[in-house]
Amino acid sequence: MLALQLAWRFLREGRTQSLLILAGVTIGIAAFVFVSAIIEGLQVNLLEQTLGSQAHISVSPEEAPPRPLMRDRGVAFARRIEPSEPRRRPFDQWQRAVRRVEATDGVVAVCPKVSGSALAYRGAAEEAVEVVGADAARLRRIVDIPTNLIDGQYRLGGDDAIVGTSLAETLGAGVGDPIRVRSGDRESVLRIVGIFDIGNETVNGRWLVTSLRNAQTLLGRVGDITEIDARVADVYEAERIAREVQARTGVPTESWMERNRDLLTGLRSQDASTTMIRVFVLLAVAMGIASVLSVSVVQRRGQIGILRAVGTSRAVVLGVFLWQGVLFGLVGAFLGSLVGALAGELIESSALFDITVTPRLLLTALGVSVATGVLAAYLPARRAARLDPAAAIRGDE
Amino acid sequence: MTITPALLEIEGVRKSYGGGVTTEVLHGIDLSIQQGDLVALIGPSGSGKSTLLNLIGLLDRPTEGRVVIDGQAVDHLDDRALTALRGKKLGFIFQSHHLLPGLSVLENVMLPSAASRGGFQASMRAPAKELLSAMGLGDWVDAWPRQLSGGMQQRVAVARALMNDPPLVLADEPTGNLDTETSNQVFDLLRQRNAERATAFLIVTHDPAIARRCDRVVELVDGAVVYEGAPSTMKSWA
Ligand SMILES: Nc1ncnc2c1ncn2[C@@H]1O[C@H](COP(=O)(O)OP(=O)(O)OP(=O)(O)O)[C@@H](O)[C@H]1O
Ligand SMILES: [Mg+2]
Questions:
Q1: Mean pLDDT throughout B216-224?
Q2: B175 touches ligand 1 (CB under 6 Å)
């Protein structure tokens, strides 16, 4: 490994230059790691907030787009459409649909659910609620209520009901208290067994979760459901999987990506700007390495000539400078990752989300750093290898 | 009389420089060097001595003519083959840029061996140390070149040129920067190696005292050989 041995000795000899450019690479990679970790943390946090209380995919016959109410000689009249009065359309053969959703690749959890509006009363307090009926074990895999429970327990049997903290507060109810729930002319009395705080004010203030059967009775949909919720392994695959689910079940299916277009656009443009930052940082690093090595090639013309004279091949001379690029990249990646991770750690306390430097990010940093080093070293290395040995020794061009 | 193949044979070598307007620097040189020869190459500045040495050293190619090293014509060899041949058959001593400052004295000496074997190896240390001791530098093995005087550095360069035990060593003004006493010391080392191992030397020099101590003198003027023979029969000494 003559090339590597000589590369190391060249770097050691030009110590000040080497350390300066190493500092540059370190700062560059630190910025790379830091920015990536922050953006990644931010995005994970945004996604968690968004997807914490909604299904990745929902399958529902009632999600069909509103139709014009009258049609006359080609003129369409769209009358006011009441979102609070959805057209009641039964979910035909929903058990079969559940099996089909479960059998779709990429789907990791499925929960048939019935939901609808109702009014909740306790004493003089009255509040509009969204009754959500589902099997406890299935629901927790879609919306993680158990870990966000602040009081009581997570259980949905008999007349059990679980409510969000804001709803409990407006009703002035705590765990163990009964509440009356009315929808149309149907009424049930349920008992609060758990209170959750899921970090989403709409859900905290409106959700009243109970068993599938209770909700079906209360909402007048015995034996029926309103939607099937599903969770997928890769959230960014949700839209593709939703289309497949729709094809398999024949029921309108919507993914979180459709429901949150603005968020998605935001995330994507954030990705684009992160990529820009990364590319510019790496370009700066590459230019630093390339310029230092170019100067080094010029300064060492005589030495390169001597190397060639004593029997060192062009390939080895090329290797000597490529290795210098690799070493800059390698050591810079280690130091930069360390600095970047430390910086992330430092600001994490003041950030509202986790900044996690993942092993994948570190590997990426290592890869791009070494690749940048090699690419940056390539032109100077080629120049060194192509030097005419006689001219190099003579010291002219 | 035994006929051994010449170590170096050049025939009708011409060298021109320049793209549009070319200047011919060497006008058809013939030269032959046998094993054990100690040859001085002299001549005024600009006469083409270094140019000729570079052609023989395979660092440059002639415009015309043939260079044959140890029976092998080199005109059709590619850069790779030339490099390998250079590492095996030739040693170099230059007037300047003698040593690599980033390598220790010992590593500088091991360099030709490292080049031909693809890296520095522990087994190269002993022969390199031995050469340095022979140059009187046994105590400076682990020093850096900049810690050595000019004469000491040049002796390290001599040791390096001898490292692969090449049959022919090319030296371009090896004593040019040294005072008389030091140049004599360096030359003695070359002479001694020549006597012990029959290593051939082609030495470019401006120093008549050095040239007189060689076996044969080749004088170049304006790119042509004007004298070749024993130093004693040379007329043109200043
Ligand atoms: N690469 C080159 N391009 C153009 N001309 C060159 C080149 N190298 C040498 N020359 C010319 O060739 C001639 C011979 O040069 P060379 O260096 O061989 O002379 P020299 O005998 O070694 O001189 P000195 O004693 O000063 O070292 C000079 O006129 C020089 O200017
Ligand atoms: Mg010269």
A1: 95
A2: no
Q: What is the ipTM of this complex?
A: 0.91
Indicate the DSSP class of residue B5.
P
Distance from the Cα of residue A241 to its chain's centroid: 17
**Residue A63, CB-side half-sphere exposure with 13 Å CA sphere:** 18
Buried b (16+ CB within 10 A) or exposed e, A328-353: bbbbbbbbbbbbbbebbeeebeeeeb
A73 touches chain B (CB under 8 A): no
pLDDT level of residue A242 (50, 70, 90 thresholds): very high
Q: Does residue B57 sit at the A interface (CB-CB below 8 Å)?
A: yes
The Cα A286–Cα A275 span in angstroms is: 16
**Chain B residues near residue A387 by CB distance under 8 angstroms:** none
Whole-model pTM? 0.80
> Within this chain, do residues A113 and A228 fall inside the same structural domain, yes or no?
yes
Provide the sign of the torsion angle of the four alpha carbons A204, A219, A69, A64, taken in this order: positive
| Cα B228 to ligand 1 centroid, rounded to whole Å | 21
Query: What are the tens digits of pLDDT across the range A32-72?
Result: 999 999 888 888 888 888 888 889 999 998 744 444 444 44
Q: Do B100 and A314 touch (CB under 8 A)?
A: no
Q: Is B91 helix (H, G, I), strand (E, B) or coil?
A: strand
Residue B231 has pLDDT above 60, yes or no: yes
Q: Is the CB of B25 under 6 A from ligand 1?
A: yes
User: CB of B45 closer than 6 A to ligand 1?
Assistant: yes
Q: Going by DSSP bridges, is the β-strand pair B38-42/B200-204 parallel, antiparallel, or unpaired?
A: parallel
| Residue A71, domain member (yes or no) | no
User: DSSP assignment, residue B113?
Assistant: H
- Residue among B59, B64, B47, B100 nearest B83 (CA): B59
For chain B, say whether A390 makes contact (Cβ under 8 Å).
yes
- Of all protein residues, the one whose alpha carbon is nearest to atom 9 of ligand 1 is B51
Return the ligand number nearest the Cα of B25.
1
Considering chain B, what percentage of its residues have pLDDT values greater than 90?
75
How many structural domains are present in chain A? 2
Calculate how close chain A gets to B167, using CA atoms only, in Å.
14
> Does the beta-carbon distance from B96 to A395 stay under 8 Å?
yes
Q: Which residues of B touch A5 (CB under 8 A)?
A: 114, 119-120
Q: Flag if B118 and A1 touch (Cβ within 8 Å).
A: yes
Q: Is B101's Cβ below 8 Å from some Cβ in A?
A: yes
Range of the domain at A366: 2-48+264-394
List the structure tokens of A217.
């009775």
Nearest-Cα distance to chain A for B63, in Å, is 15
pLDDT at B237 over 70: no
Residues B28, B13 contacting (CB under 8 angstroms): yes
CATH number of B38-237: 3.20.20.80, 3.40.47.10, 3.40.50.10580, 3.40.50.300?
3.40.50.300
pLDDT of residue A65: 46
Rounded Cα distance, A288 and A295, in Å: 11
Mark yes or no for CB contact B164/A312 under 8 Å. Answer: no
In this prediction, what percent of chain A has a pLDDT beyond 70?
93
